[in-house]
Amino acid sequence: MDAKTLGDFIAGRRRELGLTQAQLAARLHLTDKAVSRWERGVGLPDLATLEPLAAALEVSLAELMTARRQPQPLPEAEEAAARTLALARQSRSAGQRALWWACAASLGVFAAVAVFLVWVLAVNGPVAAASVASLLLGLGAWSVPLVQLARRRCTPAGCIFSLGLALAALAVQFADIFTQVREGDWSALMDTIGPLLAVVVFFCAVTLSLNLLAAVAGRRQA
């Protein structure tokens, strides 16, 4: 489907029915921003939205997918449109399962690392407490956007929460560095500052990338 052609068709049919963008969006349980994006040709309706959208516009599925009114019903066109939609849904379901498995594997690795870090804390005592707390907060910061991507429900609040956990992780780690400086433990600091900076850069890059992906996914849903 061409986004611009479909957008013009949706806008024209909506006006014929005397509906505002907000009224059409309410019928679909979406925001008027989503309808506006379709009509401007910026994006396409989600696969799950096509049939409800066709019903709301009082057109057939084939008419919606071809962006053209038919003078009379064409059973062959309807069957072809239904088959195309079914194949697209199957392909999307396979992609969603792959994404779920990838996110589940990532969260499993995070959980294993968290258990290992708790064990390290138990063995080494309070010396490792700051590093373990920082890493656990960091794992939480990564988990939030991964869960949002897997559920395909990405919200600004989730991104803000993830970034908040990331800032808390950095704050804990740098508070520990400040404590070492205050106590004059320069040898330990000099031994770890290089790897620590590399870890911080890597952590920030991954956190921002995951949240950017979540934000893009959330924008597509809007």
TrEMBL record:
List the protein's name: Helix-turn-helix domain-containing protein
- Positions of transmembrane segments: 98-121, 127-147, 154-175, 195-217
Keywords tagged on the record: DNA-binding, Membrane, Transmembrane, Transmembrane helix
Q: Name one Pfam family in it.
A: HTH_3
> Which organism is this protein's natural source?
Candidatus Allofournierella pullicola
Highest taxon, organism lineage: Bacteria
Do you know which Gene3D superfamilies this protein is assigned to? Answer: lambda repressor-like DNA-binding domains (1.10.260.40)
For this protein, the record's SMART domains field holds: HTH_XRE
Indicate the segments forming the HTH cro/C1-type domain, all copies: 10-64
